[in-house]
Design brief:
This protein is an alpha/beta fold. The protein is built from 5 helices and 5 strands, in the order E-H-E-E-H-E-H-H-H-E. It has a 5-stranded parallel beta sheet, covered by helices on one side. The radius of gyration is 13 Å and the shape is globular.
Length: 119
């Protein structure tokens, strides 16, 4: 059974709702987020690990993925006006780092990678 879940963008709008639900269901959750908007929406919980990190930092992400069964990928620049503010940043987060992230997950032994981002 899959028990260890890593959520990229887990401190964001959807992640702050999903994380408590997974914890309540008995999962061990790791939130990996750049914290553009802080982490105040996340609960204090003994089965929650919060890592401030950028999904473009492949070595750091690889370390965070060790022992993870499932990655739920939520991290993104999520709307057109934000994307327009800095197209290069948005492209690097929403597109360029995706393949390296999947390769990293596979190398770490992640069993499931779910792209559930709203981007």
């Amino acid at each position: 059974m899959f028990k260890n879940v890593l959520i990229t963008g887990g401190a964001g709008y959807v992640g702050c709702v999903l994380t408590p639900q997974l914890l309540k269901a008995g999962y061990r959750v790791t939130v990996y987020d750049i914290m553009f908007f802080g982490s105040e929406g996340l609960p204090q919980h003994p089965e929650l690990t919060v890592i401030e990190g950028d999904i473009r930092d492949t070595p750091k992400l690889a370390t965070a993925m060790q022992g993870i069964d499932v990655v739920l990928h939520l991290a993104c620049i999520s709307n057109d006006p934000s994307f327009d503010l800095d197209e290069n940043l948005s492209k690097s987060i929403n597109y360029d780092c995706f393949e390296p992230m999947v390769v990293t997950a596979k190398a770490a032994g992640v069993k499931r990678f779910v792209y559930c981002s709203s981007s």
